[in-house]
Amino acid sequence: AGARAREFEEIVGYHLEQSFRNLIELGPADERTIDLRNRAGDHLIASARRVFATNDMRAASSLFDRANDLLREDDPRLPDALLSQGIALMEAGGFDRARSVFERAEEVARLVRDDRTLALIRLGRIKLSLMDETTVSAGDLRMKAERTVQHFLPLDDDLGLARAFHTLGEIDWLLGHYADAEGMFRRAILHAEQAGEEREVRD
Asked: Which residues are CB-neighbours of 181 under 8 A, at least 6 positions away?
């Protein structure tokens, strides 16, 4: 059922996307064109999220790229969709592209004043630094990750806390603080379970 739902979302999204692009070539955007763009974005994002949950990061990043290309810069859906695209690229090994997507995501999140997603983007960039930058200071990254914990705690944001504690665990492990890392990973799993995020629990 999950595979069929993904296929349906992607097919519908593709046809809406093509209809939007065909209309744009014919003249200025009108209400119908805007509606097509929004619906295409909805379906492509939904399809990308389903694929993302299966850990097929190359396919997910491609779908997010198509969706994000449709969305206006001030669309409130865009920061989170860019964040997800950046994570997919990063986990697929596309570090340079992920870095540029995270940079754009941060700019858009500031534009639409999405502080929650901005904090999540910062965590993504910290993880990218851990994966790709050999000269990075783990201590500096840890301080940045701790600041995101302080952002998410008052909000009871379990997804944000799961990612923040997991990032802290990765940094502590890198520093050789294995007992501290295991404690952070346990806290990350607890918050991921409370958020109902199966993929975060698996990670």
From this structure: 169, 170, 172, 173
Of 11-15, 159-163, 177-181, 196-200, the least confident: 11-15
Q: Give the Cα separation of 87 and 52 in Å (integer).
A: 9
Q: How far apart are the first and last CA of the chain?
A: 24
**CB count, 10 Å around CB of 24?**
13
- CB of 188 closer than 8 Å to CB of 152: no
Position 6 pLDDT exceeds 80: no
Q: Which parts of 27-155 fold into alpha helices (H)?
A: 31-53, 57-70, 78-91, 95-111, 115-132, 138-152
What's the predicted TM-score (pTM) here?
0.87
